Description:
By secondary structure, the protein is mostly helical. The protein has helices spanning 2-21, 29-48, 53-75, 80-87, 93-104, 108-147. 33% of the residues are buried. The radius of gyration is 17 Å and the shape is globular.
Amino acid sequence: MFYIFKNFVFSFLATVGFSMLLNVPKKSIHLCSFSGAVGWTLYIILRKYGIDNVNSNLYSSIIIALMGEIFARLDKEPVTIFVIPGIFCIVPGYGIYNAMKNLMEKNYEQASRIGFETVFVAGAIATGIIIVSSIFKIYSKYKSKAKI
């Protein structure tokens, strides 16, 4: 339990740093950081219970995007203010590094394996964000048509 709490706290702080770096409005930093921390904690929990890397990233990005859409409506800010800092914790930077390192060491089989997994993880993150964004767009169009 402490392991999960520690990951939540550190990912919250990391997302605070990315939020400041990206000039997120001060009133929104705590919401950005909360979504990033929840996304990373979900990723850690899913990995601990044996869910593969790609699916863990997909589910985490769906939660981060969902929280971003909700927070954007509550805080009256653009969705990207909440989603972009939130996904920084789950971006597969280490996978990219390992793929390049193996490529430079001429270990092509390992580099291609890690590289393909990294591309799939990046695609899963993008897919999660697109799914949630599309659902909210459809809902808002349906809601605006219902008012007319």
